[in-house]
Specification:
alpha+beta, 7 strands, 23% helix, seven-stranded antiparallel β-sheet, 3 helices, single chain
């Protein structure tokens, strides 16, 4: 499992995400994702959906920037889009809880087509560094189950 780290202050992270796991069925997590740029929860039905929601957020706020870009065969419009304004504080995010467990996620880098960062299991009051999405979800599975 990832490297256990000393307590960090995630509250200053522009891309802090609260992952509220409400159900685990056949080993697949589902629940709600919260971030500072929306008042509403983003429901996810599986890990792939959770990754897609987080990637879309990171692209929208331009943090962390991806070191690789997806190729397309069609012309993308090159409109400059302003990042959204924050609608929730980190303190409000930390109050959200999942029925099975809650993780606070801070992705520091998106290098080598994966994520690197830190994750905090709220109920267990433990934090880990992770170096890939696979490692992150192994940590979450072991902590929650």
């Amino acid at each position: 499992m990832g490297q256990v780290v000393r307590q960090q202050n995630f509250q200053r992270s522009p891309n802090l995400i609260s992952i509220c796991v409400d159900e685990i069925r056949n080993g697949e997590l589902s629940g709600r994702l919260y971030h500072c740029y929306s008042e509403e929860a983003c429901p996810f039905s599986n890990v792939a959906h959770l990754i897609e929601l987080a990637e879309n957020l990171f692209d929208q706020i331009k943090f962390p920037q991806a070191s690789t870009q997806m190729r397309t065969f069609t012309e993308k419009s090159r409109k400059t889009v302003q990042p959204p304004e924050k609608k929730k504080s980190a303190e409000e995010l930390e109050k959200e809880r999942g029925k099975k467990g809650t993780m606070l996620l801070y992705v520091q880098y998106r290098q080598r087509s994966t994520w690197q960062g830190m994750v905090k299991w709220v109920e267990g009051d433990q934090e880990w560094k992770f170096f890939s999405e696979l490692e992150l979800f192994k940590i979450i599975n072991q902590a929650i189950q």
